[in-house]
Structure formats: structure tokens, C-alpha cells
Amino acid sequence: xxxRLLVLVGSMVSLALVAFLVPLALLALTxxxxxxxxxxxxxxxxxxxxxSVGTPAALExxxxxxxxxxxxxxxxxxxxxxxxxxxxxxxxxxKLALTGRSLTAQAQGGREIVVAVTGRSAGxxxxxxxxxxxxxxxxxxxxWLILALVGAGVLAVSLVVADRLARxxxxxxxGIAQVSHDxxxxxxxxxxxxxxxxxxxxxxxxxxxxxxxxxxxxxxxREAVADLSHRLRTPLTVLRLEAExxxxxxxxxxxxxxxxxxxxxxxxxxxxARRSRQDEAGECDAARVAADRVHHWSMxxxxxxxxxxRDLAAPPLHVGTGEEALTTCVDALxxxxxxxxxxxxxxxxxLSPREGGGAVLTVADQGPGFPHARALERGVSGGSSTGLGLxxxxxxxxxxxxxxxxxxxxxxxxxxxxxxxxxxx
Length: 425
Fold this sequence. Notes:
Elements: H1 2-45, H2 48-53, H3 56-68, E1 74-77, E2 83-85, H4 92-97, E3 103-107, E4 110-117, E5 125-132, H5 133-136, H6 140-184, H7 198-231, H8 233-244, H9 250-274, E6 284-285, H10 286-303, E7 308-312, E8 318-319, H11 323-340, E9 347-353, E10 359-365, H12 389-399, E11 403-408, E12 414-420
Helix pairs in contact: 1-6, 6-7, 7-9, 8-9, 10-11, 11-12
């Protein structure tokens, strides 16, 4: 935009300067020629009185004095063929003037002014003054140089003003674009300043209105999700009462633990729905959380005859995500193993420090592997699940500054590698 505006202003100013300066340049050339012609005519008419009544000797003396003072060359032609002053060829203009007619004519190398002097007893005399091309254009180059400098100055000032204007407009447009990027990144408090021309102010106002509407709609969506999740507390309470009514033993313990896990998940959903992006940062001990969740799922693995290999780093191993979010990630990964592999299929859980801070969590199983490469996409599932588990894991990892990698083992089975970033400094 800046370059286009400069080109447009430069083109318009250049056209205006050409339309204005070219006639002035031609006028300067015409005025210089007219001034030189007028001076030559005055020089010739100064000899008319002497040529009219004076003797040839007096006329010759006057011509010599006029030429000795410099100026345009002066020549006098008498009717008897005598030539006084600067020698010059008798041109057609001089021959015409001998008939009694004064005129100005173009000659080789300049212009000649011939004045016919009649009324002499010895016949008509012709006074000729020659004006060279240099005299006709004297001062024109200087005038043209001044006009060129003025034109260049006007063009330079115009480009500077246009550049300042373009910079101010680009700055406003770049500010609006940055606000849109901030909104896309999740900063719903970003607002565009209402500055500049009316059109840009209208764009900024529309963008700010959109930001406010997005914020309201997200708040409404969070409350709606929180309300729906809160409704799950009633059936959870019933399940808890049923679990408490079971005879004491391993089955009652397992059902109670499952109800506790479900209640924690519902609580997390409610908090997740109601918190903003500024509340997403957190930290926890990944080693402790992973050990707790692997121990929880190991009881179900023992019932299904699933071999479990655990290789967990010793605590503390801090990561840049909250405890509830990390618990959900581990549960989602282990739940996928139980949901998508047959009973008796073993799995491995490894947790190690990440280079640069954070942790690396790897869950590998000996099942059929991932059916396609789109398993990380939200809502995509190779089985009968919702396809949201791995997407939750991905978003949690990326939120902490990490990533998720899926792979199929060469010997069969799936491997999920989750990198969690370090805790905030």
C-alpha cells in the first residue's frame, strides 16, 4: 500500500509539473528571444536619424561608434551598393527592405532585423542588426534549471508528505491486523484503537464489536458446558451411594475409585469450562501424578490379565500444566489402551525428564496400532469412542509448550509420546 500510494502521488505530481513547467519553459524561451529582438530593434532605430539626414561620412562614423561599443553586429546598406559597418551578405530580407519595407527574418545562425530608411536624397538605406541564436536564448538555460529545481523540490516534498501519510495509515492497518491476530491467539481483551480516517475507525469498531461478542458467546458456552456437567453430579451421587452399599472388598474399592475418578473429571470439566485462557497455566509434579494414575489403572489391568511395565522417573518432576489436566491426559491415554485393545494385551508407561525442562510421557501397547494417521484430529476415532481423548491430550501438551507424537511400533502396537513443557518461571 505504501509503495502504491507513493507511485500514485509521484505520477500525479509529475503530470501536474509537466503541464505547468513545460509551458513556462517555452514562455521563458519566447521572452528571451523577444527581449533580444527588441534590443536589436532599438539599436537599429538609433541610427535612423543619422541615416535619414546625415552625410555618408557621418553615417559611417555613427556605425563605427555603435559597433565599437559591442552588442549585436550592425550593418548599413546604401542604395548605391555601399556597405557600412560589419560586412554581411546582402540577404533576401535586405533586398526586400531596399524597397522600403522593414522586417524581421530568420537567418543562418540567428535572426536579422532590417529597418528601411526612406526619404533620403540618395535613395533608400537599410539598417541591419544580426541577433545570434546564443543571444536569442540568453538566460534560458538558467531559467530552465530553476524550473527543474522547483519541480524536483515540489516532487520531493510531495513524496515525503505521501510517505508520512502512508506510514500513518499502514501503522493503523497493522495495528488492526495485530488485534485480529491477538484475538485469534485467544487474547479476547485486545482492542483496536479508533483512529485515522472514518473507514479505518469503522473497521476498528466492527472488530472491537466482534471481540466483545466472541467474549460473550464463549462465556455463555462455558456456563452451558458447566451447567451440563453439573447435572452429572446427581447420577454420580447415586452411584456413590450404590458403591457404599456394596460389601467391603476389592470390588467395592474398585467401584468407589471409579466413582471418585468420574467425580474428579466432572469437577475438572466444570472448572475448565469456566476458566479463561489466562487461567490455563499451572504446574504439578508429573512423577507423582503418573505414579498415582498408573497404580489406579493397574488394578483393572490385573483383572484383565494385562501385563504392565512401568518406568517412571522419581519425583519431583515438574511440568507446566495443572495436576487435574495432567491426570486427565494420563487417564485418557490409559483408557484408550483398555478401550481399543483386547483383554490380555500388555502396555508400557514411561516418564522421563525432557531436555530443556518438563517431562516426556510415553504410553505403548501391544495391540493393533493406530488405524490411520488422523487419530489426533478432534472427533476422529478408529473405534466406537468419541475421538476426543487424544485431542484433549494434544491441547494440554501444546498449552504447556509441548507436543504429541503418534506412531505404530514395528513389532505391532501403538505408541503415544507426549512432551510437556517446563513449569512457568
